[in-house]
Every structure is written in structure tokens, then in C-alpha cells.
Design a protein that fits this description.
The complex is a heterodimer. Chain A is mainly beta. Chain A has no helices and 11 strands. In chain A, about 0% of the residues lie in helices and about 50% in strands. By secondary structure, chain B is mainly β. The chains are: A mainly beta, B mainly beta. The interface between A and B is medium-sized, with 28 and 30 residues.
């Protein structure tokens, strides 16, 4: 399978704990995105990388959230001191600069439940 | 911030019927895309539109990029049970540093056999 891969698919944690999600993009894609989706809503942009550089962050990305893409391949999204409001599906997507503008390919998501 | 208004919110149809849904924005978009999402899965790209007035088909799906660049519609012809899911429109305002997409709130489609 050469699509976008996310791990874990599901995470249940207690409030105050830290969680980390991993995303492996499509191998030839140099752009990687993180989105958050709550029930009944469309995905909301969190942050974007081109290669290893984090080029844009949404206001939704509070200081408890940090994302990295150290070698320009996989990425991690860490949430520190989780709150119940962090419960959501965290989606990763990738795209190629050479591809059609805006054609993002999404992974299956990591669903977070904060108790 | 930018918002996309997608309608209808939900649709209940019989197998074989045609479906139409649309999306409008308050700003001009350079790109419109339509995605389908099944429960517990990530969105899957259906159709991408790049030029005002463009009409593009993908099997039984047809989508158009409105000439004002502020709207788009998606039609599904001869619906089948596997068309069930949530359909999202998404738009890109301009070639920003990241091709960031703004999503609508989705149209939940139910197809009765």
C-alpha cells in the first residue's frame, strides 16, 4: 500500500496525558499537512510542511500542539496535557508540488478520545 | 475566516436517483475539489477543478467550477448503495505557500436500496 499511513488509528487517553501521532506520506510527496476533524464538521487545517520546513500554522494549533518532520519524510504531531476538547480525528495528508494544485491525499486518520 | 457553505446538509434518496449538492464561498477560489468520506476513514478525492466554468466527470460523478469562482456543484447520476457517505467540497483561495484547503461542512448522503 503506497498511500498515506497514520498510526495509531485510535487512541484513548486521560486528560492531562501527552499523545503522539505519526504520519507517513506518499513517498514522492514533499508536502505534508495535518488537519483536525470533529464530529459533523469538515476537516480544519492545522499545519503544513514542505520537506522538513514547517511553513504555516493555524491559530487552532495552540502551544500544547507541536508537529515535526525532521527528515522531510514522516511527521509526528504531539499534543501535550490533553484536554477533552482535543477529542477529534487527526488527519494527515500529502501532496506533490508537481501534482495538481490542491490535490491532497489523506490518510485514514487517528481518532483521539480524551476522557 | 473563510467559510464554505455546503448544501444540503443531508439527503435521503432511492437507489437509481440522481443527486446534486453545491458549495458557495464568500471569496474567490482558484481550485475546487470534491471528497467523499466513509465512517472512520479519511476523505478520498473524487474530482478536482482548476478553471472557472470547467465541467469534469469521473464515472457517474460530474462537478463544475462556477464561473464566478465562488461556487461549485457535484452531481451523482443513477445512485447506488455504495454512494452512501459524506461528501465534502474544498477550495483553495490561491497558490499560497501550502495549497491549504478550506472544507465545507459536508453533505450526508443516504441511498435506500
Amino acid at each position: 500500500d503506497t498511500g498515506v499511513s497514520q498510526d495509531p488509528r485510535h487512541k484513548i487517553t486521560k486528560r492531562g496525558q501527552n499523545v503522539t501521532f505519526r504520519c507517513d506520506p506518499i513517498s514522492e510527496h514533499n508536502r505534508l499537512y495535518w488537519y483536525r476533524q470533529t464530529l459533523g464538521q469538515g476537516p480544519e487545517f492545522l499545519t503544513y510542511f514542505q520537506n522538513e520546513a514547517q511553513l504555516e500554522k493555524s491559530r487552532l494549533l495552540s502551544d500544547r500542539f507541536s508537529a515535526e518532520r525532521p527528515k522531510g519524510s514522516f511527521s509526528t504531531l504531539e499534543i501535550q496535557r490533553t484536554e477533552q476538547g482535543d477529542s477529534a480525528m487527526y488527519l494527515c495528508a500529502s501532496s506533490s508540488r508537481q501534482g495538481g494544485t490542491g490535490e491532497l491525499f489523506f490518510g485514514e486518520g487517528s481518532r483521539l478520545t480524551v476522557l | 475566516g473563510q467559510q464554505l457553505n455546503q448544501s444540503p446538509q443531508s439527503m435521503f434518496i432511492q437507489e437509481g436517483e440522481d443527486v446534486s449538492m453545491n458549495c458557495t464561498s464568500s471569496s474567490i477560489f482558484n481550485t475546487w475539489l470534491w471528497y467523499k468520506q466513509d465512517p472512520g476513514e479519511g476523505p478520498v478525492l473524487l474530482i478536482a477543478l482548476y478553471k472557472a466554468g470547467e465541467l469534469t466527470s469521473n464515472g457517474r460523478l460530474t462537478a463544475q467550477f462556477g464561473i464566478t469562482r465562488k461556487d461549485s456543484f457535484l452531481n451523482i447520476s443513477a445512485s447506488i448503495p455504495s454512494d452512501v457517505g459524506i461528501y465534502f467540497c474544498a477550495g483553495q483561495e490561491k497558490e499560497t505557500s501550502g495549497s491549504r484547503l478550506t472544507f465545507g461542512e459536508g453533505t450526508q448522503l443516504t441511498v435506500n436500496p
